[in-house]
Amino acid sequence: MHYLEIAEKLDISIDIIRYRMHKLEESGVILHYFPYLNLEKLGYTNYINRIKLKSSSPDKLKQLKLQLSSDPNILYAFIDSITSHIIIACAFNTTEKIDQFSRQLRTAYSEIIEFHEYIIIKEQLVYNMFPKGLLE
Question: Which one in 23, 44, 84, 113 has a CA-CA gap of 20 to 30 Å to 63?
C-alpha cells in the first residue's frame, strides 16, 4: 500500500505517514520491505516442508537454522519448540531441486530429523500481511 493510500484511509497527511513509517523503521517494527512476486510466473513451484525433530543438540539445531536462513530457495520458516516441528515455505524451479534439497536435509541432519515431508502448494488463498485493525 502506498503512503498516499494510507494517508487517505486514515485521513491524515502524507507527511505524517512518512514520519511515522520512519519512526517504525528506526524502532525496528518495520524490518524490511520486499517485493511480492508471483513465483509461478517465473517458473517456480511453492512447497511447504514439514519436519518433525527428534530431541536434538542445540548446536545441530543452530547449524540447521543457519543453513535454512542462507538458502536462497527458502522464503520463510517457523520453528515450534513445543512440538519440535519446523515448517518451511520454499520455492524451486524444478522437482529435482526440491528432491535434492530434501535428501540433503535428511542426510545432513539424520540424527535430529524424525520425519520430513514436502507438499506442493497449488493455490494460496490468503494474502493478509497486516493484522485486522492495524490501519483502522
Answer: 44
